[in-house]
Design brief:
By secondary structure, the chain is mainly alpha-helical. Helices cover 44% and strands 5% of the residues. The radius of gyration is 24 Å and the shape is flat.
């Protein structure tokens, strides 16, 4: 049986037959509570969150920032803050 056939056969099974094994690893990934409050995981919320916008820029300007590599959006934000005197 090919890998694709195995995947299709697995998906075709009754979902009630596919049960997670409730071992220590499973519980380590489960939601954690302190009293009745859910403990938040992941990145903490920013004090000053960014807002998504649609902005039209000249292609050469955008290309220049993208050539700088990862974080090009942050670099644009930094330049706008500097130009605005913020």
């Amino acid at each position: 049986m090919t890998e694709k056939e195995k995947a299709i056969a697995l998906l075709a099974k009754d979902p009630d037959e596919i049960k997670p094994e409730l071992d220590d690893d499973w519980f380590a990934e489960a939601d954690a509570y302190v009293g009745t409050k859910l403990v938040r995981r992941g990145r903490p919320r920013a004090a000053n969150p960014k807002k998504p916008v649609s902005l039209r820029l000249d292609a050469d300007v955008l290309d220049w920032f993208k050539r700088k590599g990862e974080g090009w959006q942050t670099k644009i934000n930094d330049e706008l803050r500097r130009a605005a005197g913020l």
